[in-house]
Specification:
homodimer, alpha/beta, Rossmann fold, 5 domains, seven-stranded mixed β-sheet, 20% strand
Amino acid sequence: MSSLDALFRPRGVAVLGASTKELSIGNRVVRNLRDAGYTGGIYPVHPGETTICDLPAYAAISDVPGPVDLVNIALRADRVPDALEACGRAGVRAAIVHSSGFAEAGPEGAALEARVLAVARSHGIRLLGPNAQGVMNGDLDTRLYASFTFTPLAAGPVTILAQSGGIAELMNLHLRRAGVGLRWYASPGNASDVDLSELLAAAADDDGTRVILLDLESVRDLAAFRDAALRAARDKVLLVVKSGRTAAGARAVASHTGALATGDAVLDAVLDRAGALRMPSVQAAVQAATAFARQPLPRGRRTAVVSNAGGPGIVALDEACALGLEPASPDDATRAALKASQSPYATVGPLVDLAATAGPDAFRAALSMLLAAPEVDGLVLSMVTPFFVDCDGVADAVVQAAAASDKPVVANVITDARWAGVVDRLQSGGIPVFEFPEDAARAMAAMARLAAFRARPPIRGTEGLVDAIRVQAALQRAVPGPDGWLSQADAYALLVAAGIPAAAVVPLSTPGDLDIAARTLGFPLVLKADPVGLVHKSAAGAVVLGIADLASLARAAASLRERFPGAPLLAQRQVSGGVEAILGVVVPAPGVPLVMAGLGGVSVESARDVAFALAPLDAVAARRLPDSLRGRDRFDACPGGEPADLDALGDALVRLSLLASVLPEVREIDLNPVAVLPAGRGVFALDVRVRTAGMGEMGTASDFRKSEAVPIFAGRRAP
Amino acid sequence: MSSLDALFRPRGVAVLGASTKELSIGNRVVRNLRDAGYTGGIYPVHPGETTICDLPAYAAISDVPGPVDLVNIALRADRVPDALEACGRAGVRAAIVHSSGFAEAGPEGAALEARVLAVARSHGIRLLGPNAQGVMNGDLDTRLYASFTFTPLAAGPVTILAQSGGIAELMNLHLRRAGVGLRWYASPGNASDVDLSELLAAAADDDGTRVILLDLESVRDLAAFRDAALRAARDKVLLVVKSGRTAAGARAVASHTGALATGDAVLDAVLDRAGALRMPSVQAAVQAATAFARQPLPRGRRTAVVSNAGGPGIVALDEACALGLEPASPDDATRAALKASQSPYATVGPLVDLAATAGPDAFRAALSMLLAAPEVDGLVLSMVTPFFVDCDGVADAVVQAAAASDKPVVANVITDARWAGVVDRLQSGGIPVFEFPEDAARAMAAMARLAAFRARPPIRGTEGLVDAIRVQAALQRAVPGPDGWLSQADAYALLVAAGIPAAAVVPLSTPGDLDIAARTLGFPLVLKADPVGLVHKSAAGAVVLGIADLASLARAAASLRERFPGAPLLAQRQVSGGVEAILGVVVPAPGVPLVMAGLGGVSVESARDVAFALAPLDAVAARRLPDSLRGRDRFDACPGGEPADLDALGDALVRLSLLASVLPEVREIDLNPVAVLPAGRGVFALDVRVRTAGMGEMGTASDFRKSEAVPIFAGRRAP
């Protein structure tokens, strides 16, 4: 029994602010509850009415005869605290506050919202809102429509959880048009108590939910969201739409909900780890939900595309391939049998084009053979409805062939109202139907993406790899600067403690250190000055490369001392012959460290080709990070042509992720550049910057908001 | 009077193969002609029937009483030549052959198609097809529906020209749903006579066409297509959907039409020059057409986004910004007035959110003020239809505000059938209505993209810049190898003749040349071996960099002579300190040279960051080429931090484009790498390869198919 039971499965619902005025929220909620066939008691509450929407009305919540677990409140904002107080005394367990005029309206509203929350907490009432659209539960035992929207309730396997009520309605509307029903639906408005993370965690445990459509604008508690997403995507399909992707969008989100938008790259990393799909548009999300709700997952990407009109079939095939699906290649025997089953006008290639005259038998034969072929993981159908073909029969044949297979089939049907029966037959038979060929291909691609996520091995425990005691000791020995930055020497020591290879360094404090550096490091070597606060050493001329002998070393040291008086000097072994990468750690929220990998040099500056992953990583997950870079081919050829040591790169990433996991004080680590040498020769950090939380500021919001800017900046952003 | 008049404006239409069987093409065409209200005579022709679809039928074309300009032929393929012969004798001027079984069916069909074409030509009949879907003309004076599709004909400003009949129908269907009517419609099937380029050129001259939706799979004659596209996009809106973008899609196109797909990068270059918009999907194309058909072009990218539901408004704003639009920023006075005109719940930021309670007055005030603001170029509206608002009144207010402005307004309406009147009012009032907020933003972005195209200055004549006589002479002096490749020395000479700077070279033939090279070029210099057929010199070890003195030069020469016996050696001035680029010319079809620019080094190999443009270029157009690269930031900082010499780069591109324009023998030029030095210091080609047409092979198809592979490979391709 979830703590949100009173919200989704109440025994009775009272509506405070119920109204006889048809065009009011208080009227609409009563009507929606009634029209949806809610199985519990519906109790309109109004001081002056005796009947509302043909139901007996009550003067006060205390007058309601039956048990009331949930109230919908559609009163003026300033009247909400007292009303909720009365509800608490009457034993109400959950409240949906539709009223606006709270935190979204300014400081006075925020104070009022705090009062409402305090009242709720004092009575143990779970609060959805204020400024909330409401809740639905399509379960036939409940049929709860506690919201003021207009799309009728139909039962089904899809749960909609949406920060925006408008997006929730848009999703529900188009799900319904696609013939797919609803399990849960909730839009929590200001979310002062129940928020999307808690709703998501509850949906994760709900047996009736198969697919979750999640609309996000911002995430308040990233760790809670991460945990809920990991849990939800384990057994359900989690499809996420995120607003505030662009700078203007993020500003609009801020003024819309008063919250900071969550960095896109951070969200991508969380969703990737969870195995949730981030969808590029509301339409794409709803269309994918339709497919997931109706069809099994494909086992792979090999997709047969069948059409009775070449052009739309090619468009579907094109889009499928552009999204990473592969055209299925059945063996010669299957292709021959398929060709033999069709008219001479049919072509059997990457597109199986049955030609416009194909009837039920032709479709049945083609789909059955293709779905039975071991080289086919799924099937995309694009059909027009020629007036000289028995299209109803074609629809039945498609449904039968799909039902006899455990592989997914999705369809594009190009038709008009005269063939509505064709679409109905397909949809009733569980075949998702889309209007454009690209839509069908995109839905299949989403299914294949999820199948690929599901096929990944779980992250293996690698905690022992980094010695927690040793790295904690290294950090304790360090003396952070005023902004939390460690000196180069302390930062290198931390890397060494974690077993992350760095090019050897020798601090030059006394004249004798020159000799030590020369003997320890050999030539050529690199000399660096490390003045406090200098970030871009090379650009500032604080790095001298290619020092070939002791005399040059002494000259370079003198020159850097002159330019950067008082700055520590470090000699470092010069490493060359590798690919330049950048590795790092960012911590956008307490307890949520992310590891970053990117291509170094010009790429990180101009192309921002970096990828993020949630810590901790294991070796397999770490390898996916460089693989996800646009410029990943660069690792195929070090100078000289050998492939780069991606195993060593992966090991360094795993160690970085563990370092960040065991050191909550760490805010940011930058290894830039890192030389990734040819396979077998390792990786070496050539420069390192580590920032820790300053004294007493650990975990404060301002600290984290500042560091959050890093992944937002570095993530994949639209131009 | 266009040569296609008989096709689009016939005085009478006969249907050969007309049939009383309802489910036949021959019946459907007669019915469509009749139901659409065709203003000319309709003459079903059938040897045994006297009446078809309530119209008198005739035994033969020679029996038809009235003038017949056009025939639709729906006979078995082998009967078409004789039937067409009879049509020719009867004075028919155009024929649509619906029948299939021609070139698309194999060699026998191809022979039959050649016979049909010969018959047509012998009688001066313009032929659409065979295997064609047909033609429509929505003009109220004509109302011609000479096709077997099902979407009813409505008059409007959009012309659909489609290689695929299925895509044509899909476009028409959704245009009609959006309340937008048709001007011309044609799908030419095998296009043995009238093809898409000729149709496009005709539509370019048609006053009734405002928007052209063009569906392409392949382009047979690239020069003809280029000319038609340039002409059509000058005064019309040309929206292009291209199939065969991916390898599998291209193979499917090949089996679909027997034609080679046209390289995507080539098409992009042609469309960019023409100012036509390539659309990412059929849906996006139709939606953009809806907007262009109804609304004026914006003057710029500054877009106001207005909503009555925050979430969908943010989604629209996000998508708008992701597509390059800018949120409009009205001045403080306007913002204050706007705020004052609204309820306290409204927010005025990058999104103007009027809140759900906003009624007609609120919408009227907001739209009027925003459309009047000089900082606003266009307006995207996203609205839900709350049941407590006068939504019909809102629709009327939106229509009135838009009508009073010369700026575009597009809308997303989230609603269901109960508010169909709202959508009708908006559409009748000329406001394009889309179901998802992203769609509205995308339509506005397409309009802004076209506005930006229209704002570009025309290409200025720069023919005098390159001395045609001089470059022709340089080419005549060259001795191409068996594959048409010039030697390094000849290739450098050609560059010099065109005024394209290359790092100075000295061929080393005799021992004395070492001294000459040293004196001419200075040190350090580069030594290269140039064996026949070697493409990747560096990888093969045929390049020695950084030769510091005469002795080293002699040693390097001896070593290269040993490794590459008989290969010419070239000494070259070593140029350093710039950004590495790659420039080039490809010629995908006779008379259609393209210029290419990309980032050099690893970028061209791993990221394929290259851009193409149609030759010739002027300085302004040439500058857009490096600007369109993903890694364009690289040009901002040469080693040392100075910006690169983009003026010199542009000049080299202009000269390359002119060189290619005046030398039709040139097939391919690669300048790779090119050192782009800091501003004011120029660009220098460091290696050059030039391929010319071999003897006697100029302009053969095989030659061009081979070279076409270059832009297909190098273009922006989906992963």
